[in-house]
Amino acid sequence: xxxxxxxxxxxxxxxxxxxxxxxxxxxxxxxxxxxxxxxxxxxxxxxxxxxxxxxxxxxxxxxxxxxxxxxxxxxxxxxxxxxxxxxxxxxxxxxxxxxxxxxxxxxxxxxxxxxxxxxxxxxxxxxxxxxxxxxxxxxxxxxxxxxxxxxxxxxxxxxxxxxxxxxxxxxxxxxxxxxxxxxxxxxxxxxxxxxxxxxxxxxxxxxxxxxxxxxxxxxxxxxxx
Length: 225
Hints:
two-stranded parallel ribbon; 7 strands
């Protein structure tokens, strides 16, 4: 129920938080991944250790009933995570909540690693020398192309796509009438879908959710049917 990128900064170095807003207007940091790479350097300069950072990730709260929803879906479905976070953050959070077994082999995100000085590095999921050329997505990751690839590699009768950010709109346009897109109320994806022109590009059934109870109920309704 938090931004996993910024949560450790707010907890461990709150004086760095204003930079997330002030630096977004700098062309060098127009892509969120580039900004995060820079901010990890700032965190290192503050003396925040790898252990402290990873422990902070474990404290990120998950919405009530959301873990139940994951367990329910996993009983009958394949699960995947397509995220603009990174490969360090996601497994730690999943393991902290006992969920790593459900998506450990299907995490598509930006690669990250710790160097010998305990400075975290993150790079683009999309190779920089072969841009994805999608006009709707940031240079580091087109979630729509990732979804297309997944649908070509396996036959799925129905896809339930859960998202909240602006980057989740592109994959939403790739979904089929048999699929479902679950957009979080009050976040950019749901705001975008409130526009008639944008909504007309979505063929899947649209659900707006507010909490883990909504997700659990939608899973029950769609997966059992």
